[in-house]
Design goal:
By secondary structure, the chain is mainly α. The chain has one domain. The protein is built from six helices and no strands. It has helices at residues 2-17, 21-30, 34-43, 47-56, 61-74, 78-102. Helix 3 (34-43) runs antiparallel to helix 4 (47-56) and helix 4 (47-56) runs antiparallel to helix 5 (61-74). The radius of gyration is 17 Å and the shape is flat. The termini are far apart. The model has no long low-confidence stretch (mean pLDDT 82).
Length: 108
């Protein structure tokens, strides 16, 4: 198992050096090298993949916010990043509202 992870890491690093960050991120993510995959996805502005990996890394709300700002500052398509995060947060608040009603508490 470790041999496959080591080979995947080496291959992913080689892909990054050759400017193939998306492919590198996918390889690294599958190998469980999520921190490095996140960096690769950020480098190629693949924000959807970056958010997916960030969720696998159990990013806090603050960490997701920092990630979103970092990606938005690099991205030519800032609006799509912001809309995506707005939708995610709206969905989370909606779900929390259902939980709080089920337990007899209101969200503020």
């Amino acid at each position: 198992m470790y041999v496959i992870q080591d080979l995947s890491l080496a291959y992913g690093e080689d892909l990054i050096q050759n400017g193939r960050c998306l492919e590198a991120g996918l390889i690294l993510s599958r190998a469980g090298k999520c921190e490095r995959a996140l960096t690769a996805f950020e480098d190629c502005l693949e924000w959807r993949h970056a958010v997916t990996v960030a969720s696998r890394l159990n990013f806090s709300d603050l960490q997701l916010s920092v990630l979103a700002k970092r990606l938005a500052s690099k991205s030519l398509n800032v609006t799509s990043v912001l809309v995506y995060f707005h939708c995610r947060l709206t969905k989370i608040w909606h779900i929390l509202g259902h939980f709080s009603k089920a337990f007899g508490r209101e969200t503020h």
